[in-house]
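Reply to dn_fold:

You asked what the input looked like. This is it:
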Amino acid sequence: MLAPFMLLCCSTGQSYGAENLECPEIGSGSVPDLIGDASGGRLFTTDSRVDLSNEINESINRLQIASPTISWTDVQNVLIAAYCRVVARKSGLTATEKWDRMRQFENILERQIAANMMPAGTLIIANVPLPPDVYRELRRQAVVSSQTTSELMTAILTRAAGKWPFVRQ
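and this is what came back:
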């Protein structure tokens, strides 16, 4: 399992501190070397989980291009260190908000890494936020068709991807 952020953050000997958020250093200069700059590799803080997920995916890709043999643990450590620098420098956030951003980043990063580590052909779990009224309608349609909501959504996405007819397993 990958190392939790709190241990990474607080157990390192060297740190880059700013406004109550101490960021880990990963080796001598490896963070800027692997992400392309010392400011955080074009990462940005956002309230949008979707935007943050996209930024994380792009950063993982850049790391793997820069260092094709990089381990998933090193990917996680480098990106946490890089994002920590960005959050530490972000003005207008309280210390609590900065820690919340770091926890959100770590949570999304761990999910992305777990998804990337899955073998080819593994089922993909799509987490798509739906307005409550849309979800209620999907749930109603699923009941009418004697399916679970997940089965109905899988059938809809399968058809949309041009793989119709959907065959239940």
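Residues 1-19 have pLDDT under 50 and may be disordered.
Hope that clears it up.
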